[in-house]
Every structure is written in structure tokens, then in C-alpha cells.
Design goal:
With 346 residues, the protein is α/β, with parallel strands linked by helices. The chain contains ten helices and eleven strands. The strands form two sheets. Strands 1, 2, 3, 4, 5, 7, 10 and 11 form an eight-stranded mixed β-sheet that branches. A three-stranded antiparallel β-sheet has the order 6-9-8.
Length: 346
């Protein structure tokens, strides 16, 4: 296809936020950035550009792009732009999984893969084997186990290609980095859930698997297969696409240093980077958070105690020597690098 026009500039954007490690494997979490767009078209163009950039880098390095996508409103929003902008020779190298999927047949209206197939995969001429669905005919626990096997097999294959083949990958297994998705495309619900990771749900405590299942989802249908939080956080890119005023309070909670009620989406800090694309209604309450942050900075200048430094996350970041850069729109005039000054930062 012809080269797409440059994406409209965001209404506002944040500097990247350095986030301290916590992976347990010596890997530091990457940057978290957000951009706010006035129009759905601008948001979609930017999100697709980020996705295609990640795909090009993965294909250049490993010969394949392994991505997990989400359903909901995302296929309808992004598919037209993907069809217009994605090089067809690049699409042949994609391996598409689901960040989460309902335990239903692909032909069912609730199937996220079915929606992606109708709106994007079939029009793009992508082969059926390039997209991996959940085996709805199996019992839910077995379906999740099989999905995990297929995902890990694809990631091992990509790692082997980058490392010179299966034998080389096996010989370096002990020193090899964790298996990583190249990108995870995520949405967020009004309650702050992402994938099928729901607030205060036991699924958030799963740390031993890349894929698990939920049989009591608070949002119907009840039975789902989902990536776990560690699997999402291991990704090279976590890309959020969030629209609508119903998400505004959850967006604020996701970016708050000390949210009253933490939301799962706010726990996503990918190993490479985490990028949020928001429309103005979804970002509306962030302005209130920025005003509060300005007050904190004023307190800092007056020598008063700063509550934001007392949270476990901030303490971890200060101890690790990473600079916390707040996701507010305009803090660059007050501190090095566009964020709060951190004691000990060089």
C-alpha cells in the first residue's frame, strides 16, 4: 500500500517514565508514556504506527513478529488503519495470539479472534495458521494449558531464529533472556481491567504461568483464557488503546502514584516500554491529577513532606537509582528530564 500520511499530533503527551525493576531476573522495567488525541482517527493512526514499528524491528531481528491482541472496540478502531498501512510482505511474518479470549467457538459473536479475522486477517490475506485461537471444545483448564503451549512454542521458535537455530538456543538456554512477546495490544474496561485481569481477582496473583483461565469473570461471559500479568510485563511493547469517558476514573487510577483503588491496567509495566494512546474523554481526569502533582511539587520546594515518595513503588524506584518521571503533560520546567526530581539522580 501507499505510504500513510503522518499521524495527527497528539493533543498532549507525557515524557517517558523510568520505572524500576521488579522482574526478579535483573531486567529493568522500561518506559511508560501516554499520548492524548482529539480524534479517533489520530489515535488509531498513532497506535498502528507504533505496532508496525514494533513489527518491523522484530522481523528484522528475529524474522517473525509475535503479537497478542485484544478484542472489544479495538478491532473496529484499528483494523481499517492496519489494512491501509501494513506492508503485505510484513504481515506474512506475523504470528497473532490473543491477550485474552472468551471460551467460545471462533464463529461465536463473543469471539475476539472471530472479530479480528473478519475485520483484518481475512481482508489482509493472512493465512489461517498465522492466528492461534483458543480450543473452545476442550474444558477451560485444558484450553488454557494448550494455548500456553502454543504461545511458548512460537516464542521459542522466534528466539531460536534470533540465536542461530534451535541448537544454539538450547546451548544458551541458561543465559538466554526470558521468552517475550514482541507486543501486546491492550484495552481497558471502566473498572480498570485489562485482558481478563480483573480488579481484586485471584488471577492477578498468578506468577507461574504465561496463560491461565478465569471461570468467574465479573464481565460476561464468565469463562475466559488470558495472558497473566508476568507474561504481559515481559513483552517488548505493551500498547494500550483506551477511549471513552467511562474509562476516565480508571485511567486516573492507572497513572496515580497512590491510587485509592489500584487497577490491573496500572500494573502493566512492560520490559521494553508501555505506551498509552488515549482520547480526550478517557484522559479527562488526568488534568485533576496533574493539578495535585503541581501542589506536591510546590510542597517539595517549600521543604514539606512529599506523600508520593512514601509509596512502595516510589521507594523501590529511588533505591534502584531510576528517575520517576510523572506522566503529567508539562512538568519539564520544574525538573531534569521532565519529571519529579529524585534524590540521588545524577
Amino acid at each position: 500500500p501507499a505510504a500513510p500520511a503522518p499521524a495527527p499530533a497528539p493533543v498532549s503527551s507525557s515524557p517517558a517514565a523510568g520505572v524500576a525493576g521488579g522482574a526478579g531476573d535483573g531486567t529493568a522495567r522500561g518506559a511508560r508514556t501516554r499520548e492524548v488525541f482529539a480524534s479517533p482517527d489520530g489515535l488509531a493512526s498513532r497506535a498502528v504506527a507504533l505496532l508496525l514499528e514494533a513489527a518491523a524491528a522484530a522481523i528484522a531481528e528475529r524474522g517473525v513478529f509475535v503479537v497478542a491482541v485484544s478484542g472489544g472496540s479495538i478491532p473496529a478502531l484499528l483494523a481499517p488503519e492496519l489494512l491501509a498501512a501494513a506492508p503485505r510482505d510484513q504481515l506474512s511474518r506475523w504470528r497473532l495470539f490473543l491477550a485474552d479470549e472468551r471460551h467460545v467457538a471462533e464463529s461465536h459473536p463473543d469471539s475476539s479472534l472471530g472479530e479480528w479475522r473478519r475485520r483484518f486477517l481475512e481482508p489482509a490475506g493472512m493465512g489461517s495458521v498465522q492466528a492461534v485461537g483458543v480450543a473452545a471444545a476442550l474444558p477451560l483448564p485444558l484450553a488454557a494449558e494448550l494455548y500456553e503451549e502454543k504461545l511458548l512454542a512460537a516464542l521459542r521458535e522466534a528466539a531460536a531464529a534470533a540465536g542461530g537455530g534451535a541448537a544454539a538456543a538450547a546451548s544458551q538456554a541458561e543465559s538466554a533472556p526470558p521468552l517475550r512477546l514482541d507486543a501486546v495490544l491492550l484495552g481497558m474496561g471502566p473498572d480498570g481491567h485489562t485482558a481478563s485481569l480483573f480488579p481484586a481477582h485471584a488471577v492477578l496473583c498468578e506468577t507461574g504461568r504465561a496463560v491461565t483461565y478465569v471461570d468467574d469473570s465479573p464481565k460476561p461471559p464468565a469463562c475466559r483464557v488470558t495472558l497473566t500479568l508476568p507474561a504481559i510485563n515481559a513483552a517488548r511493547l505493551a500498547l494500550f488503546v483506551v477511549t471513552g469517558g467511562s474509562k476516565a476514573s480508571a485511567v486516573r487510577a492507572a497513572f496515580a502514584a497512590q491510587p485509592d483503588e489500584p487497577v490491573p491496567a496500572g500494573l502493566v509495566l512492560a520490559a521494553g516500554r508501555t505506551h498509552w494512546c488515549l482520547d480526550e474523554p478517557a484522559a479527562a481526569q488526568l488534568r485533576e491529577a496533574e493539578a495535585a502533582a503541581e501542589r506536591l511539587m510546590a510542597d517539595d520546594n517549600s521543604g514539606q513532606k512529599q506523600p508520593w515518595r512514601d509509596s512502595p513503588l516510589q521507594q523501590t524506584e529511588v533505591a534502584a537509582g531510576f528517575a520517576l518521571i510523572d506522566e503529567g503533560h508539562d512538568f519539564s520546567r520544574d525538573s531534569v528530564g521532565g519529571g519529579y526530581p529524585i534524590e540521588g539522580r545524577e
